[in-house]
Amino acid sequence: MAVARNMRRTSPITIVLASLMAFGFLCFLFSSPSPPVSTSSTTSDSRLEDTAEHPLSPPTKPFIPQPVQNDGRHVQAPPVVKYDLNALTASSDASNKAERILILTPLARFYQGYWDNVEKLSYPHKLISLGFIIPHTKDGDAALSSLEKAIARTQTGTEQNRFASITILRQDFDPPLASQSEKERHKLKNQKARRESMSRARNSLMFTTLGPSTSWVLWLDSDIVETPNTLIQDLTSHNRPVIVPNCMQRYYNTDTKQNDIRPYDFNSWIDSSTAQALGDTLKPDEILLEGYAELPTYRTLMAYQADTKNPRPKRVIDLDGVGGTALMVKADVHRDGAMFPAFPFYHLVETEGFAKMAKRLGYSVHGLPDYFV
């Protein structure tokens, strides 16, 4: 049965209510938010001369937010900034020339000894920036929590101990190994996937944090817990594009019943004709690894070149491969394109592939067999 015409007409009350609702919605949509309330203020006396002042500031400098207007906008848009990299130095007198250092660490586990050691570095902390990349794992979450607590204590402590800036990244890809135990990390079958993943993490960290004011990049592994407090001055004093100290491991010697040290990092080496010939037999996607009996390369390993009885810490040797436990690199080497290949580069990946890439770009690579970390 058809509905009567007068029953289908819209009630005047309905029209009024609908109009009020529409008007209220438009007022809400176009109303301006209240300006944020500032809880702290920063004076020019409390900042470094070269403190960055805009949101796109390089992460190697602390950022001071600009005041905001009542409409919530910044007083000025971020300016177009020009950087004269020709004026940037990376010299043997890094401290006196106030050259900025970027310490980068892939962090799967947090070791308090690592943080304590970094805090003790005698290079001016106002010239040091730190960068970390942490995996999205249970161990990574625990490492992040411990790291944030350590950072909070340091950055709210005495001004002399505070670092210029600290950047923390989370990996956007899953780690290839479920366990980060030393036994699992060093299994031969796990090396290719593990080190390719490490390369991706290192590159993500480096490309994100390398600012135009950075002179040197120190790659420092998270389990390095003991170095001279003059580590930065000592490594930069050689004024080499790429230089790496000798990484050792403290352990209890069950034969002598005494504490002892032994070689740990076997990725710093001088190439051999045997290794080169072995590389010629490999498929394009296969890599050469050092320190495994299954792959006898007969390279000269810097780990075994140490003179522990009469060490000469300033003794320098030429290398073809490097490890990344405490690797000092001039920032220009990275800027020129030397990164950590996450693919077989002349059958090498990660830090060893980086050394090969740096040499292909015309840079020399060096090691300090008697300088221990």
UniProtKB/TrEMBL annotation:
Residues 39-69 are annotated as: Disordered. InterPro entries: Mannan_Polymerase_Subunit (IPR052086), Nucleotide-diphossugar_trans (IPR029044). It is found in: Golgi apparatus membrane. GO terms for biological process: cell wall mannoprotein biosynthetic process; protein N-linked glycosylation. The keyword Transmembrane helix applies. Its main location: Golgi. Residues 56-65 have a biased composition (Pro residues). SUPFAM superfamilies: Nucleotide-diphospho-sugar transferases. GO terms for molecular function: alpha-1,6-mannosyltransferase activity. GO terms for cellular component: mannan polymerase complex. It is a single-pass type II membrane protein. Pfam families: Anp1 (PF03452). Gene3D superfamilies: Spore Coat Polysaccharide Biosynthesis Protein SpsA, Chain A. Keywords: Golgi apparatus, Membrane, Signal-anchor, Transmembrane, Transmembrane helix. The keyword Transmembrane applies. Belongs to the ANP1/MMN9/VAN1 family. This is Mannan polymerase complex subunit MNN9. It comes from Aspergillus mulundensis.
